[in-house]
Predict the structure.
Amino acid sequence: TGLVGRNGIGKSTLLKLLAGEIMPASGTIVRDGRIGTMRQAIAAAPQETVSDLLGVGAGIARLRRLAAGSGSAEDAADADWTLETRIGDALAAIGLPPLPPERPTATLSGGQRTRLALAALLLDAPDMILLDEPTNNLDASGRRAVAGMLESWRGGAIVVSHDRALLRGMERIVELSSLGARIYGGGFDVYAAKRAEERELAA
């Protein structure tokens, strides 16, 4: 689902409500399943590494201890032996080369951090993903990688975006306005044609 509307209408706030980060002033929101989110701007936190942003720091450290012969029985029991392969697959899927887990994210560009955050969602594989302007800071190849990720995504996705090319791939568009929310089946082109028809009828 693509979520559209003018700046300041509340698209990002709606995502925060859906994610459970803030509570609605009235009514209730029911969530079923795991939700993954990606912010509009992925700033580099102090001393943050690639493995931190991917959410696999503990798993990588466990594998390193076992490889060095200093791992515990608990490490061996909890180890995800497919982790490094899955990391490589997730990075490749979003158009990133292999990255050392210990590399500081401050050494990456904004576009690379955005791609890395998308790779983290692929690794986590939640039931629903909420993306806030995922193609910001990305070049053409990065935008294509995001579109490709969404095309192959098998869970639910709500995407806030002004990127018409990305929105063309949506199954439905929800437009937020001061009057509320309206749902349009199909991607951006269907939505734009329907809105033009409505404006003509209103005129």
